[in-house]
Amino acid sequence: MVNAIHAAKGKVDGIIINAGAFTHYSWAVHDALKSYPGNVIEVHLSNPGAREQFRHVSVLAPVVNGTISGFGGLGYALAVDALVELASQ
C-alpha cells in the first residue's frame, strides 16, 4: 500500500483509499499519504464509529481531505464525486 501511494505521485490527481485495519495503526500509510501532493479521500464500507472502540480512531484522518463511511460500495462513487469537486476548486 505504501509503495502504491508513493508510485501515485505525479501520475494521478487523487487517491481513494480504504485502508481497512491499517486505518487504526499504520503510521507508514499515514506518512506516505502525508507526502502525497494531491487530494485523498478515505473510504470505509461500514461506519467505524458504530463498531468496536478501537475502530473509532483513524491515524489517517489528519492527512486526508475527508472520510466517507457507512455507505457500503456507494462510498466509492461518493469519493469519486468528492475528488472531482476538489479538483475543480
UniProtKB/TrEMBL annotation:
Protein name per the record: 3-dehydroquinate dehydratase
One matching Pfam family: DHquinase_II
GO biological process terms on file: quinate catabolic process
GO molecular function: 3-dehydroquinate dehydratase activity
Gene3D superfamilies hit by this protein: Dehydroquinase, class II
Alphabetically ordered keywords of this record: Lyase
Keyword Acetylation listed: no
Keyword Lyase among record annotations: yes
Enzyme type, top EC level: lyase
EC number of this enzyme: 4.2.1.10
InterPro entries per record: DHquinase_II, DHquinase_II_sf
